[in-house]
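User: Can you fold this complex?
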Amino acid sequence: MPNMPEDTIAAIATPLGEGGIAIVRISGKEAFPVIDRIFQRPQQQKIDFTKTHRLYYGHIVLPKTGETIDEVMVSVMLAPKTYTVEDVAEINCHGGIAAAQKVLECVLLEEGVRLAEAGEFTKRAFLNGRIDLTQGEAVMDMISAKTDLSRALAMNQLKGSLKEKIQSLRKRLLFLMANIEAGVDFPEEMDVQKITLEAKEEILSLIEEADDLLKTAEEGKILREGISAAIVGRTNVGKSSLLNALLKEPRAIVTNIPGTTRDIIEETINLDGIPLRLVDTAGVRDTEDVVEKIGIQKTKEALKKADIVILLLDKSEDLTKEDEEILALTEGKRTLLLLNKKDLTPSFTKETILKRYPAKKEEEILEISAVKEEGLTGLKETIKKWILTEHLDVRQDVFITKARHKELLLQGKAALESAKGVIEEGLPLDLVSIDLKNGYEALGKMIGETYEDDVLDLIFSEFCIGK
Ligand SMILES: Nc1nc2c(ncn2[C@@H]2O[C@H](COP(=O)(O)OP(=O)(O)OP(=O)(O)O)[C@@H](O)[C@H]2O)c(=O)[nH]1
Ligand SMILES: [Mg+2]
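Assistant: Here's the predicted assembly.
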């Protein structure tokens, strides 16, 4: 393997700051000789470096002066079953900036060791063939995951689900190319027409697979950009109050004068990692006011555009003709019906609505009080559940979450489309091979089968030092 790294690297693998433990990680051929020189066990016991995955107690001692630096535990892990596939030693020292820094200094003073670059341990895991590029990228996603959902997606990719999917597509492409080549090289012996037909079928099926994968990129987009919810209802039902309560700040003007909100107000909240864009709208009613009329028009457009609708009713007042109109407008939209002002004496209840609108499901109706901030948790939970079950299928094995992957997948698909075109136009089969090869290479770049150094640098430079 031409790319196998030769030198030994070291870095602090834990965040700099006060904590229970800090870890100095060393990887490469010099890892064990270095430990042998700077680490002392009680009673001059020696470490048996032929035994792997062992933990030893002792002290780090500066060889030159004999100064004891820290009391530590050292783990010894023999290649190839390690993070980097190389010999790895990890010094567990006391958490705290000075101890870890000094231990690292001790290591770096030794011959043949240098400070690791950002992401270099993981880059080695890739260069040494333990993981592919998508798994390397997942390591970074795992570290930066701030929600359980992004963690689950990262873990999935880390396990190699995307790699395996891409590898299986590439295998099929390879098989296809071999078949076509046989048809091109030995046209007398092979049934070229049959090969062509089969090739077309397989290409169509591969395009379908690429499309399915690309669809998951849309879901990845939802995770990044979120989904939108239009808050609609007649005037004075408490739409702006709800927006403010969800935002936990008085963003929109609230008054008891009907027709307070006249323009669209958009703000985003974080629903356990999924951004939810809330759109407060002008209350719908018959009005002669020109500005309000435009506002109401905008409400109707916002309602159409939104991924989901939050429709408010004022349960302290009887249902009006306007309420019914708006209910009709939400037909065909995923709608959460909120009966607001539950802190006041009710004019109707959830049961009234269920009886009157038998098509409505119980879980689509919630009673809340925007002003008293009651029922908001249930509201958020319901929306979250909808997003998870209807917009995102997180149980799915393979997900595209990165622009780099999407780009290469699109290239692969374009090559397949081109191959399909060649066959359909009845052009020579060897032209198909060129397209298929392009597709094969695009997918190869995704998993890092082939790569350019600057792409690697770009990916791993995002990491922290020590990972
Ligand atoms: N008691 C009670 N009053 C509420 C509640 N929610 C809103 N209100 C009051 O209802 C009035 C109208 O509230 P807004 O939030 O401005 O209503 P809106 O739907 O945005 O009204 P428009 O912008 O005019 O369409 C205000 O006086 C609020 O204080 C609630 O849960 N309980
Ligand atoms: Mg309002």
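The first strand starts at residue 8 and ends at 12. Residues 233, 235-241, 254-256, 258-261, 282-283, 340-341, 343-344, 369-371 surround guanosine-5'-triphosphate (ligand 1) (CB under 6 Å).
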